[in-house]
Amino acid sequence: MVFVPPARHLLRAKDVADARYAEPLGVDDLAGAAGLSRAHFSREFRRAFGESPHAYLLTRRLERAAALLRATDRTVANICLSVGLHSVGSFTTSFTRTYGRSPTAYRAQFPPASQHAQIPTCVLRAFGRPQHRTFREDSRRGRP
Prior knowledge:
Layout: H1 8-19, H2 27-34, H3 38-49, H4 53-71, H5 76-82, H6 88-99, H7 103-108, H8 121-128
Helix pairs in contact: 1-2, 2-3
């Protein structure tokens, strides 16, 4: 089988799916971004990338949900809604099918989010400075 590079318009639609996965996107929106009819877009997208546009978008959403489950302590329902899905039941079914365990079981295999919470650099710098210091290098001691 000869590799045919995907056309620029298909990559544009893929970029829209990657960037706006949390929005209520559908195949019609992606086809519009590519400038193609829905049927032609779906056929060309599947030929170029090996999966349907809907499956690709769902995969992006589930990947982001998995990252949020690993790194935050937000509820499963909140994560479901924040990645652009509307049904917690459908989310749990899709997540389990993809990752082999439910979202809560997936989260349980990682350390709690509080253990790897990142502190902003500006806060580290502010509290890491010496407490008693002067900004003058030349003191007036010893001068008349």
